[in-house]
């Protein structure tokens, strides 16, 4: 089975074209080497996938005939991603909550209140 089709079938990518583009960009590696989307995968292969700034690692157990349900994914692969990589995912979620990009629209009411409090505190320090 093709690597792009496999990654789509075990739900690592939402569409097969996204999986194909990931392979073309070098985000999918087998044995430490970037692979083309047409490369065949076999049971016991270890695949490394870079997705959302995280390096996932999976070991292939079996090849599905078509796309499988989320509950059945564990039959076809084992997630062997190190815990450090998964902890980075949690940190990314928290950092996105507190960081607002420049030009991302008007400040929210909460942002405005924080700015007002900051201005008042700096006036008190100066006086």
From TrEMBL:
Residues 1-59 form the RNA-binding S4 domain. Residues 111-127 have a biased composition (Basic and acidic residues). Belongs to the HSP15 family. Coiled coil: none annotated. It comes from Psychroflexus salinarum. Signal peptide: none annotated. It comes from the Bacteria. Keywords: DNA-binding, RNA-binding. This is RNA-binding S4 domain-containing protein. Residues 102-127 are annotated as: Disordered.
């Amino acid at each position: 089975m093709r690597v792009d089709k496999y990654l789509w079938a075990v739900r690592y990518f939402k569409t097969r074209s996204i999986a194909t583009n990931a392979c073309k960009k070098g985000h999918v590696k087998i044995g430490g080497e970037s692979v083309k989307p047409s490369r065949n995968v076999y049971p016991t292969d270890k695949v490394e996938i870079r997705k959302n700034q995280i390096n996932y690692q999976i070991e292939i157990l079996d090849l599905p005939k078509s796309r499988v349900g989320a509950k059945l994914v564990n039959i076809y692969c084992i997630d062997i991603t190190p815990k450090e990589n998964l902890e980075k995912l949690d940190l990314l979620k928290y950092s996105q909550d507190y960081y607002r990009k420049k030009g991302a629209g008007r400040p929210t009411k909460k942002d405005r209140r924080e700015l007002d409090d900051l201005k008042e505190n700096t006036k008190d320090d100066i006086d």
